[in-house]
Records
---
Amino acid sequence: QVQLVESGGGLVQPGGSLRLSCAASGSIFSIYAMGWYRQALGKQRELVARITSGGTTNYADSVKGRFTISRDNAKNTVYLLMNSLKPEDTAVYYCNVRPSVAYEYRYWGQGTQVTVSS
């Protein structure tokens, strides 16, 4: 009964900003890492950013310097602030959670659409 609920997607002009959020709930008792993936039409799903329980972050080269990932451990929530958005950022963005460092098992959200267009 673990659920990941994303919000914050939408339509934005190039150069604009959006803030995505993802809240984890249900029978989850620990979270080692949370992150965001995205998948554009006709392309493979790719890692955008991730953050561990210790605060270590990692970003795709294509978004580094423009996107910022953060988390609120008390609320089991992860955020993705996206600045200077480009049309190439258009994709469905998926929240992901890894409960344990010892296992690769992950949970996925349903996705939220981000469209960058003038």
---
Amino acid sequence: QVQLVESGGGLVQPGGSLRLSCAASGNIFRVNAMGWYRQAPGKQRELVATITSAGSTHYADSVKGRFTISRDSATNTGYLEMNSLKPEDTAVYYCNANIYRYGLGSYDYWGQGTQVTVSS
């Protein structure tokens, strides 16, 4: 089995910062791309940022210059550093990882989500 466990969400004032973590564990041979998505109330889930196994990154226009995605391949952990947070960043943030399990193939896995609330 594979698990993705997120942490680091919470309540922050506008202009503040948060760092989300996503730890992958279980029967993992290799973690391929990792990403962060978010879903605000009444809205569809949207892509925030992705990072490949080689370290190439992609960001949604709404977070460029404010958010930074990174990963630690040694510990199978992904991170999302969020700065200059705005009320419109309020959402449940989900970690996603494409993971290769030896002999079984590659599959997408999701974390349980962590709430980020930006409010004064």
---
Amino acid sequence: QVQLVESGGGLVQPGGSLRLSCAVSGTSFSINAMGWYRQAPGKQRELVATITSGGRPDYAMSVKGRFTISRDNAKNTVYLQMNSLSPEDTAVYYCNADIWIPYSKYERHWGQGTQVTVSS
């Protein structure tokens, strides 16, 4: 019943920018950390960026300085602003949300993924 709906993926030229969005619905519980992961063909899924409920971000070294993660808690939405994109950034990008279930545990939920292709 919890859904993470991603948008903003697509084709972009090297050096370009793209902004991904992921809106969480179907829960009345609070969302703790949110994040973005990506998986390129033939590679394992890797962490791109995370952000705490208080808005503190962390980034993978490969994207640090180029990507910015942010969130709007009122909208239950996490964003990923991607600048200076290169072909190495081509991957399926997945968002996640860790939802706190009172008073016992977190549940990790994932989006279906959105394709980002960086090519001329």
---
Amino acid sequence: QVQLVESGGGLVQPGGSLRLSCAASGSISTINAMGWFRQAPGKQRELVAVQPSGGEINYADSVKGRFTLSRDNAKNTASLQMNSLKPEDTAVYYCNADVRTVIAGNRRFWGQGTQVTVSS
């Protein structure tokens, strides 16, 4: 069993910043790709940023230059620094990880989501 727990969401004004954190725990052998998705009301869930193990970080065009993904492989954590936030960034943000589990091979896991609201 693997759990992803997000934190750091909240309400900010346009132009403000938030830092989201994700901690993975459980029967983890190693984490392959790890990153963040988001889903706004009435919209499809979309990729925000993801980093394969040892690979290049992939950012959605809408967040390039504003968001920064970082990973700590030793701690099985990931963070998303979000700067210059816009109202259209409002969404539930989900941590995601492709995990090689101890006994069940590779599986994809999702956090429960954390709400980010950008509004005046």
